[in-house]
Fold this sequence. Notes:
3 domains
Amino acid sequence: MSERIEKDALGEVRVPADHLWGAQTQRSIDNFPIGQPRFRFGREVIRAFGVVKQSAARVNAALGEISADKAALIERAAQDVVDGTLDAEFPLVAFQTGSGTQSNMNANEVIANRAIQIAGGVVGSKKPVNPNDDVNRGQSSNDVFPAVMHIAGVDAIESRMLPALGRLHATLEAKAAAFAGVVMLGRTHLQDATPVTLGQVIGGWAAQLDDARTTIRHALEGLYPLALGGTAVGTGLNAHREFGERVAAEIARVTNKPFTSAANKFALMSAHDAIVTASAALRTLGGALMKIANDVRLYASGPRAGFGEITIPDNEPGSSIMPGKINPTQCEALTQVAVQVFGNDAAVAFAGTQGNFQLNVYKPVMLHNLLEAANLLADSMDSFELRCARGIEPDRARIGEHVAQSLMLVTALNPHIGYENSAKIALKAYRERTGLKEAALALGLVSAEDFERWVDAEAMTRPG
């Protein structure tokens, strides 16, 4: 492979000639061969760097910090980063310096060298655009990377995850309406309980998703303030006093998201409570999805010896030895994602406690885990919605059998004969393996006519 020589503060570094990154990026490649390629930052992070650098160039030009010609070159190069045409130039992994400095320099070097290419210069010459003095003007990795964390987090959650959640929610709401009249056996403590409708059950799942969505949207509010303008430690050293406000406004304009300049940049650089909160909100969604997926696979269990009260799509053979076996694999995948999201959140939560003085140096691992959780949730919800939720149907005959056999229908007698007499009927029917009506008549506690009038499973699914 042909190489060129680039230089940084520590000396010369050999860089592949056909790439746009520079010395500091190459040093990171060499020094941190950890987790490749799984932990490599993806599209949201690269796009966020492009947005930050492009917006910074525009603001710096407007403030007279760099020339209009340099700013124009940086803007064009940064647009290539935003558009994704330079994704191959971002090879770094999450496990690097805890401030994300090498990823920031990766963006600076790529944008500077692309700008040099556009200007017809020599890649690596740092002329007419310098990665530090021009692309990174008024910035530090310590305020750029937190801004990238917030922008990328908002992107992944708002652009991918929330739409997927919305699609699953809509499907479940439609199912809840469709099955509003299907009366089925309720269960508490894994034991028979009073009747519910399948519509009420699925409506409960939809409500969980709606609550989780509300929680996530509240958490997003903490990601809109940006640390840009704080530079190294939060004081704003070497940045124009208007830079933070202006660059946040520019980022808000180009992303169409309500980003603002953080009122206190020390907090955003030394701690990442907003990231911790966002991760916890995703964990809440993961818990709701775990409940939903487990309910679905239990209701569909069998098909002969389980509950078998709903059917779900047959997607693929389930056994290498048992012919004809079909498993609830979409439920299993969704629950595995929920487990992973809980693990992601544990990493984010612990990393969030590790700020010391003016900097938390666990930024990349926090960002990686937040984005992985958001994208896993998006993918798994779309898969579950398409390949499972859409195909949920009640087995009305099986549901009817279970309702008819339920001892807890006796609860309808409480207002008429009292709790203790109703309990006598239920326990007699249970111990003698008879029906409730037979036990009630044998005990002489109700007449056949009253039993038929009072014990109405459908009426028991409503108040009163």
